[in-house]
């Protein structure tokens, strides 16, 4: 789960790894995306990621584990493929050396499409 927290500095990006967090109250779904692969795919390849906005402007992101209950209509767009094969592409050594770490730049908008 990643989130931004307001401190003495304008904004500080913080990354925390938790197994499961239960959120109570009403949240708007900003984005819901994921993939479900055949059992032959490696563990962890299948997941459902959600971005939620709270009533006070906080944005929470995490992987959905367990039930997700909507209080109103939700539109889901899905696609399926036949003869799916999971292939992991290996990076060349040069590409690995050129990779840059991800830097958080907070913005005023929540991002993602409304659902």
UniProtKB/TrEMBL annotation:
Q: Which SUPFAM superfamilies match?
A: AF0104/ALDC/Ptd012-like
Q: Name one Pfam family in it.
A: PCC
Keyword terms of this UniProt record: DNA-binding, Transcription, Transcription regulation
Keyword field contains Transcription: yes
Query: Could you tell me which Gene3D superfamilies the record lists for this protein?
Result: Hypothetical protein, similar to alpha- acetolactate decarboxylase, domain 2
Where does the record place the PPC domain? 1-103
Q: Matching PANTHER family, A to Z? A: AT-HOOK MOTIF NUCLEAR-LOCALIZED PROTEIN 15, PPC DOMAIN-CONTAINING PROTEIN
Q: What protein name applies here?
A: AT-hook motif nuclear-localized protein 21
């Amino acid at each position: 789960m990643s989130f931004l927290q307001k401190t003495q500095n304008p904004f500080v990006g913080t990354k925390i790894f938790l197994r499961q967090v239960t959120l109570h109250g009403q949240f708007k779904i900003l984005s819901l995306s994921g993939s479900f692969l055949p059992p032959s795919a490696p563990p962890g390849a299948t997941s459902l990621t959600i971005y939620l906005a709270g009533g006070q402007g906080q944005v929470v992101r995490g992987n959905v584990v367990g039930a997700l209950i909507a209080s109103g209509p939700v539109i889901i767009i899905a696609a399926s493929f036949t003869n799916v094969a999971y292939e992991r592409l290996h990076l060349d050594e040069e590409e690995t050396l050129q990779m840059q770490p991800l830097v958080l730049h907070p913005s005023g908008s929540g991002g993602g499409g409304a659902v």
